[in-house]
């Protein structure tokens, strides 16, 4: 027992801003290393599986309990991961336990552990092997030809899978029972007889849950065009001196092919690549493109995979047979990567890279940049509409930069046509939410055997139900929001807490039965389209239709195979999907994206308009985008139509600098929650006053957010605007201290206070 390292600090999966010290007993001493999982007592009766982060000899002032057992022979986290967790907890002011919960798949947080998937395997016994070697198999089994054929088939398969060695060594190499039965065309009765007679033995064998078995073909990478080659060479050159390079390329310019060449370079140097995407849906298409080149050397990791599948990938990453490429969504940045050399962050502007709820509220993009700093890896950020922060980092010289202005194969950028629906509604020329121009374009596309995408950034049938007589609208009992009507379910749903309600038959205020839906979501768009174009085969891509990994794959496969004519979706359809046959894109209501009370609303609207427009005309004839709006004169709309990104960025940066918003300041939101509105209001005022003394001139609020009650908890928000160059570490320490001080007051001890750093 090492008395100098008698104690261990452990992170437990609880939302507390601390680690906990335990004594290391003799039986745990050899395995209790930083990064190892340990089963520890917590509280009076609970037991947690935590992560050891430090061994030391500093005896605590309190009597500490002993680690029950260490679950890992080798640590489950690398030293780099532990350092990344420490940075995330500090920078995002997150509880270490919340980071543990977000990072580790559920089986790794359980004392029961991970159970590998097994299948029944068969192998020849010594008796059968001797008969084959002596050449007497046919004689002994002359009256049992089916058994003899089965043994010979298993022998052939075993030799085919054997490691290098003597020609007859494969008899001990097992093969899948199902494969053996299929290969030998034997019945179950024959297999049972072989086992009974001692010719074959069965056993359980661990097999992978991940079905990527294709061999890698690194020489099958498509050659780059002249424009792509220049971009590739420039990026390689810039990465020698800079940690990160921003690849700013128009939609369909071929960024993925450039990434593929960069990945191959990393593999040739013995390094791994982490390829991050903002949406799970995007992994479906990218997987097929990268899988053709990297095959089984590529792993995929995101939340739609089962806990067992994610655990298998995590554990594989800790072995010598780890993946060369990991393709994944936000959570993939938390995987162990022992040879990381390249990080690709595609669609880097997307807000989906930021985790909102539950905690930790981290940005996968910015966390990946820190991971690169810790590992010495290089980063390529790609986007057709880069974020304001990334463009500012280019201007400051922090990032390298390359701009691709042409589509691959000289395909034309789509024509964007503005349709002023305000005037059309006044003249009663709209067909529901469809303008005559959009309907005509859809009909032309269908007649020509082409496809279309319709973008409406709201799911459900209608955002609200309203009484025609008195204007009453049903609202959630637990949240300060109206209920969304889902016609297919015949229910109303709160999109904040998930509570489902029956549709009322009459108004509870005036008794009227004249209730009607107000507004429209993707479900209503689809229904109206069926009425106007009954011959069109439609599909919806939104949160209601993509509950599983298979749902994503079916929707995308059907559209790619042209089994669907029109794909209707929320922002999922704006992000990097690549389809050859899309002639028309319809933006149903551009105003909904701009009329959001947030300083980033125009940036996000410009990006979504540009991105969804980029789905049209990627191959063949020039595509057409119909942009329906009531704000046709807005500069943002004109700039999106003209593709004038430089002017849009100039206007946005001037406005951000004038009003002190990112990238010219750091923003931190302070949220307070309590079940009683007067309590949370009083606590927010007290905390805001303390913050004004600590950070004069930098505090806004407290205010009620747009949704001021969620799950019966009343909310207040305080905004902090912190100038570039301020000592952020000192500010964070001060914020935590003030939070602790205000929560010590008797009236406020039940208030929840948390922080959102760099909100999106």
Question: Any overview of this molecule?
Answer:
The structure is a single chain. This protein is α/β, with parallel strands linked by helices and 760 residues long. Helices cover 34% and strands 21% of the residues. It contains 23 helices and 31 strands. The chain has a 7-stranded parallel β-sheet, with helices on both faces. A 6-stranded parallel β-sheet has the order 16-26-25-17-24-23, with helices on both faces. The chain has a 5-stranded antiparallel β-sheet with strand order 2-1-4-3-5.
Q: Secondary-structure blueprint of this entry?
A:
Layout: E1 7-11, E2 20-23, E3 37-42, E4 46-56, E5 69-70, H1 79-91, H2 96-103, E6 118-124, H3 126-134, H4 137-140, H5 145-161, E7 175-176, H6 177-184, H7 188-196, E8 200-206, H8 226-238, E9 244-249, H9 255-268, E10 272-276, H10 280-294, E11 298-301, H11 307-316, E12 325-328, E13 340-346, H12 364-375, E14 378-383, H13 388-395, E15 400-404, E16 415-420, H14 421-426, H15 436-447, E17 451-455, E18 464-467, E19 484-486, E20 491-493, E21 500-502, E22 515-518, H16 522-532, E23 538-541, H17 549-560, E24 566-569, E25 582-587, H18 591-594, H19 601-613, E26 624-629, H20 635-642, H21 645-659, E27 665-674, H22 677-694, E28 699-703, E29 709-710, E30 713-723, H23 728-743, E31 752-757
Parallel strand pairs: 9-14, 9-15, 10-12, 10-13, 11-12, 13-14, 16-26, 17-24, 17-25, 23-24, 25-26
Antiparallel strand pairs: 1-2, 1-4, 3-4, 3-5, 6-7, 6-8, 18-22, 19-20, 20-21, 27-30, 27-31, 28-30, 29-30
């Amino acid at each position: 027992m090492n008395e100098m390292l008698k104690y261990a600090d452990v992170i437990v999966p609880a939302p507390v801003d601390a680690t906990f010290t335990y004594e290391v007993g003799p039986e745990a001493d050899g395995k209790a290393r930083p990064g190892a999982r340990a089963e520890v007592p917590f509280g009076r009766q609970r037991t947690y599986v935590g992560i050891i982060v430090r061994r030391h000899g500093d005896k605590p002032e309190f009597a500490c309990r002993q680690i029950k057992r260490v679950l890992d022979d080798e640590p489950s986290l690398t030293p780099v991961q532990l350092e990344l967790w420490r940075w995330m907890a500090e920078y995002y002011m997150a509880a270490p336990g919340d980071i543990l919960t977000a990072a580790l798949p559920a089986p790794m947080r359980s004392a029961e552990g991970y159970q590998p998937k097994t299948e029944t395997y068969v192998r020849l016994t010594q008796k059968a092997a001797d008969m084959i070697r002596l050449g007497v198999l046919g004689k002994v089994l002359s009256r049992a030809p089916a058994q003899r054929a089965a043994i010979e088939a298993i022998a052939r398969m075993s030799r085919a899978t054997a490691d290098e060695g003597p020609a007859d060594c494969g008899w001990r190499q097992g093969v899948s029972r199902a494969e053996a039965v299929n290969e030998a065309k034997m019945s179950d009765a024959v297999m049972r007889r072989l086992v009974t007679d001692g010719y074959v033995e069965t056993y359980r064998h661990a097999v992978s849950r991940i079905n990527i078995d294709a061999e890698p073909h690194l020489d099958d990478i498509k050659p780059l065009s002249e424009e792509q080659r220049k971009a590739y060479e420039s990026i390689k050159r810039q990465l020698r001196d800079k940690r990160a390079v921003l690849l700013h390329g128009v939609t369909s310019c071929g960024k993925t092919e450039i990434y593929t060449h960069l990945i191959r370079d990393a593999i040739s140097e013995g390094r791994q690549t982490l390829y991050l995407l903002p949406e799970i849906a995007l992994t479906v298409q990218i997987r097929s493109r990268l899988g053709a080149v990297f095959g089984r050397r590529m792993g995929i990791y995101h939340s739609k995979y089962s806990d067992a599948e994610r655990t298998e990938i995590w554990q594989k990453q800790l072995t010598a047979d780890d993946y060369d490429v990991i393709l994944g969504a936000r959570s993939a940045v938390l995987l162990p990567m022992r040879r990381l050399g390249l990080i690709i962050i595609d669609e880097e502007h997307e807000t989906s890279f930021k985790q909102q709820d539950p905690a930790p509220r981290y940005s996968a993009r910015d966390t990946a940049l820190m991971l690169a700093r810790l590992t010495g890896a290089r980063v390529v950020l790609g986007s057709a509409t880069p974020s304001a922060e990334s463009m500012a980092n280019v201007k400051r010289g922090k990032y390298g930069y390359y701009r691709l202005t042409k589509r691959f194969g000289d395909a034309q950028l789509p024509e964007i046509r503005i349709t002023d629906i305000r005037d059309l509604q006044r003249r009663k020329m709209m067909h529901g939410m469809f303008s005559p121009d959009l309907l005509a374009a859809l009909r032309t596309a269908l007649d020509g055997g082409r496809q279309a995408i319709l973008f409406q950034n709201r799911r459900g049938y209608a955002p609200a139900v309203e009484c025609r007589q008195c204007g009453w609208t049903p609202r959630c009992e637990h949240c300060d929001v109206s209920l969304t009507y889902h016609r297919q379910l015949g229910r109303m749903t709160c999109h904040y807490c998930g509570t489902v309600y029956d549709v009322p038959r009459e108004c509870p205020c005036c008794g009227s039965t004249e209730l009607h839906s107000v507004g429209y979501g993707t479900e209503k768009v689809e229904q109206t389209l069926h009425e106007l174009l009954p011959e069109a085969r439609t599909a919806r891509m939104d949160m209601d239709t993509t509950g599983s990994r298979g749902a994503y794959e079916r929707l995308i496969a059907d559209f790619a195979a042209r089994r669907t004519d029109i794909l209707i979706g929320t922002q999922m359809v704006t992000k990097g999907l690549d389809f050859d046959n899309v002639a028309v894109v319809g933006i149903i209501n551009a105003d909904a994206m701009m009329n959001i009370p947030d300083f980033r609303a125009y940036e996000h609207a410009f990006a979504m308009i540009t991105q969804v427009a980029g789905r049209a005309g990627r191959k063949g004839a020039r595509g057409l985008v119909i942009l329906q709006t009531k704000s046709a004169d807005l500069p943002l709309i004109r700039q999106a139509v003209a593709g004038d990104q430089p002017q849009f960025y100039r206007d946005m940066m001037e406005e951000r600098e004038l009003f002190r918003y990112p990238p010219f300041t750091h923003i931190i939101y302070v949220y307070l929650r309590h079940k009683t509105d007067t309590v949370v209001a009083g606590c927010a005022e007290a905390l805001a006053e303390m913050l004004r003394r600590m950070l004069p001139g930098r505090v806004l609020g407290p205010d009620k957010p747009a949704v001021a009650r969620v799950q019966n908890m009343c909310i207040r928000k305080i905004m902090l605007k912190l100038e570039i160059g301020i000592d952020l570490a000192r500010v964070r320490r001060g914020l935590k201290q003030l939070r602790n001080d205000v929560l010590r007051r008797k009236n406020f001890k039940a208030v929840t206070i948390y922080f959102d750093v760099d909100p999106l």
